[in-house]
Amino acid sequence: MTEQEDLIRDVVVVGAGAAGLSAALTLTRARRSVTVVDAGQPRNAPADRVHGLLALEGVSPLELLARGREEVLGYGGEIIAGEVVDVRCKSYGFAVVLRDGAALQTRRLLIATGLVDELPDIPGVREQWGRGVLHCPCCHGWEARDRRIGVLATGPMAVHKALLFRHWSADVVLFAGIHQLGPQEREQLDALNIPVVAGAISRLEIDGDRLNGVRLVDGQVIDVDAVVVATRMVARMEPFAGIGIEPKTQPAGSFIEADAFGKTAVPGVWVAGNATDLAAQVSGAAAEGARAAQHINSDLVMEDLDRAVATLADAQTAKADA
Question: What is the dihedral of CA 261, 286, 252, 159, to 10 degrees?
Fold first, then answer.
């Protein structure tokens, strides 16, 4: 491992998605030295468009990130391609170790690594993920409006997903599979005229690059235009275990716990975006990144102030003793 001992940055941001770039933009505009480390694995890479983002509705995810990178670089930030494999506590803050052996020294650390969607092991799901296979009604409900929507009961949130998507389409069906529905779930589905299809799923039917049905193990095919899955969402946090970052687990997945400003239980470490908020859309992730950055900057200002006050006191004491 090689450390650049002559360069201690104010902040290293791990992750160059909406949260990480938004934070980096705020920090560079605050005249902070910032390095963003990007492993090049954005969660929304399979998607064609970003939705619900004010003034940028329908923008390509890749275009959005490219614009963000240009803005960060324009204010003097640094963006490097690399994968963080370890983080170590140091007297000045942290050493962020990359896979190539380099170590970036920093006073503060912002985790914006996002999450991984654990997809059900059903042929066709991964191939159609982000296109014919959806998960978020707020993100994709408009595009799926009035279409035939099949919800796969692959997790505890399946019925909830079916109830939500029913708002956008009157043609919603729940594929229960081996999931046993409770009396209240049955009542809710019946109240909204959502039929339930029993039986295990064999695969999704795809014609060319278009999803057109769900095939059951008995050979029956139910025609649909879109499929909804409730993924289990897992924050990317393995490299930070050595400094005390631990996962908080709930039925929907695991995340890094933080306060309202993104500050974790580990001094000097903040988190923003899907790594701490599993439900955050692009707009929310960007806002969280900016908010965390504001508080990181304030924290650095106060640390520098404390140092200046201590230096002044020492100087006054030395003068008095002279």
Answer: 130
Count of CB atoms situated within 10 Å of the CB of 135: 18
Residues in Cβ contact with 307 at an 8 Å cutoff, skipping those fewer than 6 apart: none
User: What count of residues does the chain have?
Assistant: 322
Over residues 217-229, mean pLDDT: 95
Distance from C-alpha of 249 to C-alpha of 262, rounded to nearest angstrom: 17
Name the β-bridge partners of 36.
13, 79
What CATH number has the domain bearing residue 164? 3.50.50.60
For residue 78, the SS3 value is strand
Q: List, for residues 49-71, the tens digit of each pLDDT value.
A: 899 899 999 999 999 999 999 99
Which of 58, 66, 65, 80 lies closest to 4 in space, CA to CA?
80
Sign (positive or negative) of CA dihedral 40, 44, 49, 53: negative
Q: Residue 56's beta-bridge partner residues?
A: none
Q: Are 208 and 230 in contact (CB under 8 A)?
A: no
Strand partners of residue 284: none
Beta bridge partner(s), residue 111? 14, 271
Q: Pick from 228, 263, 291: which residue ends a domain?
A: 228
**Alpha helix ranges (H) inside the chain:** 18-29, 61-74, 125-128, 137-140, 158-165, 183-191, 282-321
Question: For residues 232 and 240, what is the distance between their CA atoms, to the nearest angstrom?
Answer: 21
Residue 147 DSSP class: S
Range of the domain at 48: 2-117+232-317
Whether 157 shows a pLDDT value over 50: the answer reads yes
From residue 263, how far is each of 97, 136, 279 by CA, in Å? 21, 27, 18
Q: Are 81 and 104 in contact (CB under 8 A)?
A: no
